[in-house]
Amino acid sequence: GPASIGLLSPGILEYLLQSLNFQSHPTVMLFALIALEKFAQTSENKMTVSDSCISDQLILLEKWTDNPDYLKRQVGFCAQWSLDNLFLKEGRQFTYEKVDLTNIRAMLNSNDVSEYLKISPHGLEARCDASSFESVRCTFCVDSGVWYYEVTVITSGVMQIGWATKDSKFLNHEGYGIGDDEYSCAYDGCRQLIWYNARSKPHSHPCWKEGDTIGFLLDLQEKQMIFYLNGNQLPAEKQVFSSAVSGFFAAASFMSYQQCEFNFGAKPFKYPPSMKFSTFNDYAFLRAEEKIILPRHRRLALLKQVSIRDNCCTLCCDEVADTELRPCGHSDLCMECALQLETCPLCRQEIQTRVRHISHIS
Fold it and tell me: In terms of CATH, what superfamily is 307-362?
């Protein structure tokens, strides 16, 4: 807000920009870049930072996106994200326009993600720099069989990674993520916990660290989930199957400054299980346009071009608003969205019943 404009004095801006040079420690570079991102949330600051020619330095830093040093890799990720979303460089091609997605058939779903999570242009790496608990699901859903995917830990902090159905809710500002409802189960390698239905229990693996590989096996025949750390497996988890037996997605939630990379089978696994399994990449399919993860300003431009009917649902903007919530009486939702809510989004009153107005049904 206005306070951040006053905070970004010429001296602070100069200090943050100088912290991006290669003489600085990568940790200093990373948090200087994140600070500049935060300042750029106001249009005046964004213009001030952009006018400083920051993009020239970011172009050098984005070469670190695949650096084997995981701290430098974080700097590279944030530099590339900033170039694509905030500090645009005239003549620079957006990363999504040049990334090769030919062999990627399953990825993180940029349309099924909480608002502040950053997803890489190839759709396989995610990072959170917000103060909320950000979540995302994969594009591919499984109903039967045995499935496996892996995650490379880029940062060793709090993340909850595992499996979730479409009924699992993302309440990022309230701290609810994967493993915090009855429709999901998650592995937490930082706190050494397994999460289900917002309750945790300790596991026997050591704390994860940068570069570790976490394996996630879902066996819908035996109704069990098995978690692995660098090939070492834990006992099977089965509690989620009392509430859900199909419709599972790979999913993850991230606390502040956390990042990891997903492998859904587009490249060989580091620690494949001994049992026979399938991979998302072998069975999923995405059209070319479905693989594109647009920068935020381009997504917003497309949204502004979309015309919305006067009588559409205020949540999904697709269906007709034909449902009244009682007892509050608000009626700007469709029945499908209303069934997913426990309180009215306008007045926060508890919903006791939902009534569809027949006259609105075509």
Answer: Zinc/RING finger domain, C3HC4 (zinc finger) (3.30.40.10)
